[in-house]
Design goal:
It is built from 6 helices and 10 strands; from the N terminus they run E-H-H-E-E-H-E-E-H-E-E-E-H-E-E-H. It has 261 residues and is of the alpha+beta class. It has a single domain (18-225), classed as S-adenosylmethionine decarboxylase (4-Layer Sandwich). The strands form 2 sheets. It has an 8-stranded antiparallel sheet with strand order 2-3-4-5-1-6-10-9. It has a two-stranded antiparallel ribbon with strand order 7-8.
């Protein structure tokens, strides 16, 4: 679990800062034909259905020390699932108090399986948002979420919104130290990914992109083994899979791949 070093402030009332952590997590594979592509979609829908996602978000709530107020979940046709969980810093009783917290503390996840129409590439994306207020912090769930999905590429955004006021009336726009999301990622995880930071410090906006370094093609063939392909086919598949990863990581279509990809 990540330790959050918060400033020891004596506040005037509730901590009104909102901490929002947003993920895009991608899993890439190669499925050589329509049958395997359909099987991959069914596999993803089963592995990350609404029930499994609810379990993951329930664990997140426990990790950050939040109380669950309400859960809404849905599996979609033909594919995908969503879960929305309303949470609070402490147990709440009054309905009007619960309503006041709905727009401040929540966890959501949405999944998007899809396939390339021609090149055999299948991609699974999970969008996750953890938004909290008070002393609970979404950063504590950072490593758990990265490791609970098959994360080839991860895009993470963290933003602190609003302000809170101390007993003297002074506004505080930040109540913990941070200069990079990477500071809250475990060292063994950081060593496994290529990372890029884009931060806007004066706005308390932090952005980190992660690309898995090691690339064992055998782990990316769905429904087939390497022995089923010729060396030339394996080289072409490797190029397609790596191109997909790099285009997602850099956020643009690439005319050519880096020499050392």
């Amino acid at each position: 679990m990540v330790e959050i070093n918060r400033k020891k402030l004596k506040l005037h009332g509730f901590n009104n800062l909102t901490n929002s952590l947003s993920f895009n997590i991608y899993d890439i594979c190669y499925a050589k034909n329509k049958k395997h592509q359909d099987e991959y979609i069914r596999y993803i829908d089963e592995a990350y259905n609404a029930e499994r996602l609810t379990k993951i978000l329930t664990d997140v709530a426990g990790i950050i020390g939040a109380n669950i107020l309400n859960i809404a979940s849905q599996d979609y046709e033909p594919q995908g699932a969503s879960v929305t969980m309303l949470i609070s810093e402490g147990p709440l009783q009054l309905p009007e108090t619960i309503v006041a917290h709905l727009d401040k503390s929540h966890i959501t996840v949405h999944t998007y399986p899809e396939s390339h129409p021609d090149e055999g590439i299948s991609t699974f994306r999970a969008d996750i948002d953890v938004s909290t207020c008070g002393i609970i912090s979404p950063l504590k769930a950072l490593n758990y979420l990265i490791h609970n999905f098959d994360s080839d590429i991860v895009t993470v955004d963290y933003r602190i919104r609003g302000f809170t006021r101390d007993v003297k009336g002074v506004k505080h726009f930040l109540d913990h130290e941070i200069n990079s999301i990477q500071n809250y990622i475990l060292p063994e995880t950081r060593s496994s990914y290529q990372m890029i930071d884009v931060n806007v410090f004066q706005e308390n906006i932090f952005h980190t992109k992660m690309l898995l370094k090691e690339f064992d093609l055998n782990n990316y063939l769905f429904g087939a083994g390497m022995e089923e392909f010729t060396p030339q086919e394996l080289r072409e598949i490797r190029t397609r899979v790596r191109r997909e990863m790099l285009e997602i990581f850099y956020g643009r279509n690439l005319d050519k791949l880096p020499v050392d990809f």
